[in-house]
């Protein structure tokens, strides 16, 4: 993946693009390696989203070559010596895909129409977000392992802050980890005058932040 990543894209858009190309069974029991200038520019949290969602394509694991971002992240995580492992020049891949990220648009995974026997909800049932303007939203969910990172809540808080409007449907918040939970309550949102994500969510009428968990992936809320 190469090209400058537009500010309106997230790693979730990248992985939905990939799964849409290879299908939900396209990497069954295989490893997926992500590389390129775009991947190198991603934060550690966004890299986690890429690798975490490999399972949605049937993958066994997701890999990103270790670099300075990796080493910095590990500085306060472990004191145990480790040796980075990389694909060598003789490495063989079953298939390779190339994407110009600068040309991608925000994506969604659509819900199927069971009454008409159409495709069910699936990560590879993708569509451009702009093609879904007529879709009625009954509830909003911000959370789980690939959408409940600190960066995700910060992005959501900025949108609420910019709109200045109250939510019109139930809006659930489920952080991925205890650290994210603490960040939502403690870190100020840039441009908010010192407000935290939790304060902005409360003002917007969102549900109270839930305990860290997989949330909707387990069938709730």
UniProtKB/TrEMBL annotation:
SUPFAM superfamilies per UniProt: Aconitase iron-sulfur domain
Protein name in the entry: Aconitase/3-isopropylmalate dehydratase large subunit alpha/beta/alpha domain-containing protein
Pfam families: Aconitase
Domain Aconitase/3-isopropylmalate dehydratase large subunit alpha/beta/alpha: from-to ranges: 2-219
Record-level Gene Ontology MF annotations: iron-sulfur cluster binding; lyase activity; metal ion binding
Keyword Iron-sulfur (UniProt): yes
Keywords noted in UniProt: Iron, Iron-sulfur, Lyase, Metal-binding
Superkingdom of source: Eukaryota
Record carries keyword Metal-binding: yes
Cross-referenced Gene3D superfamilies: Aconitase, domain 3
InterPro entries registered for this protein in UniProt: Acnase/IPM_dHydase_lsu_aba_1/3 (IPR015931), Acoase/IPM_deHydtase_lsu_aba (IPR001030), Aconitase_4Fe-4S_dom (IPR036008), IPM_dehydratase_rel_enz (IPR050067)
Biological process according to GO: oxoacid metabolic process
């Amino acid at each position: 993946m190469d090209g400058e990543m537009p500010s309106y894209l997230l790693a979730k858009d990248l992985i939905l693009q990939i799964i849409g190309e290879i299908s939900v069974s396209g990497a069954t029991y295989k490893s997926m390696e992500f590389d390129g200038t775009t991947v190198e520019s991603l934060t550690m949290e966004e890299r986690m989203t890429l690798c975490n969602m490999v399972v949605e394509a049937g993958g066994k694991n997701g890999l990103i070559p270790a670099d300075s971002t990796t080493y910095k992240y590990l500085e306060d995580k472990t004191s145990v010596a480790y040796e980075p492992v990389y694909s060598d020049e003789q490495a063989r891949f079953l298939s390779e895909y190339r994407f110009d990220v600068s040309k991608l648009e925000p994506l969604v995974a659509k819900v199927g129409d069971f009454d008409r026997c159409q495709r069910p909800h699936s990560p590879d049932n993708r569509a451009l977000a702009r093609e879904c303007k007529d879709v009625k939203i009954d509830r909003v969910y911000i959370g789980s392992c690939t959408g409940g990172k600190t960066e995700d809540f910060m992005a959501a808080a900025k949108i609420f802050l910019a709109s200045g409007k109250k939510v019109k449907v139930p809006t659930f918040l489920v952080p991925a980890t205890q650290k994210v939970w603490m960040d939502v309550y403690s870190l100020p949102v840039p441009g908010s005058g010192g407000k935290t994500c939790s304060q902005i969510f409360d003002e917007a009428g969102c549900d109270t932040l839930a305990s860290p968990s997989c949330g909707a992936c387990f069938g709730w809320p």
